[in-house]
């Protein structure tokens, strides 16, 4: 099992006017340097255009910058929002990025979910259709060498034959046949997971509860198998916050009372508690986090710290990750959110050091194989 991170980034200090955007960027790059130094596996950057508390409009730029600061860390997008890009331009730029990173780049694609982002680009309910068409074009440009023309509903592209005069087209990905592609899902029967399974991409689960995770893997597996692909749990990534300190008490306090807990309490949990309509039935997204029999009123930060997140001393976190791996049936990587501890950087540096140098080696042998052997025993 690998351990990694996902940075939206959370930037409440920037929204409050107490930090500059450059300082937000520099904190993410510092986290990348530490993660690389301590042997952690992956770091992903998001794409948002109109969301002040998650200011990251260009994950490819963050990946390029972080690649110059690191040597081993794999760097990904979670995700490039395809309806907001010309897919031909994005495909060629990401091939270039694959070479810039020496093959450490991981592609993540999504349709986009914030309506204000969609409004900025004049894109409405057609996001999913645009993403699907863009994926077809990107895959073709990454893998086909013969001349072709694709005329779609939203874009038209034509790859010419090779010209000895221009010595091109010439650009192909560094990784063969192309970078690993991940797609993120939230709902139990996520349409994105269906699409990922159908195309043979890797699934990435958001921070949701065990019942939802198991249903997501079933959804992905069914779609992949029906399309002739072999679903591999080693490629399954699950977002679940992990926080390590020297003692259980210290880890709980530093998470609960620090920027991580403040971000969840003031920003993330209110979003999860918001009531929406699903087929005429009101529901809250936070229901996907709860244990069976719980109500949304019981979804508190304290409950999540004690029952949902993987928080504690190295020994405690190793035990929690081992149990979690068994519960889900095996997973390839756990990804934690990055939080802004820039005002107390030693706290976060120590967390990354313990996670990478103490927890990491102990959970490295976990994953699908360990989960299967435990179940068999």
UniProtKB/TrEMBL annotation:
Gene3D superfamilies attached to this UniProt entry: Luciferase-like domain
Asked whether the keyword Nucleotide-binding is assigned, the reply is: no
Luciferase-like domain location, by residue?
Answer: 24-326
A Pfam family this chain is assigned to:
Bac_luciferase
According to the lineage, what is the superkingdom? Answer: Bacteria
Q: Does the keyword Repeat apply?
A: no
Any idea which UniProt keywords this protein has? Flavoprotein, Monooxygenase, Oxidoreductase
Q: Which family is it part of?
A: Belongs to the bacterial luciferase oxidoreductase family.
Name of this protein: LLM class flavin-dependent oxidoreductase
Which source organism?
Microbacterium sediminicola
Q: What is the lineage of its organism?
A: Bacteria, Bacillati, Actinomycetota, Actinomycetes, Micrococcales
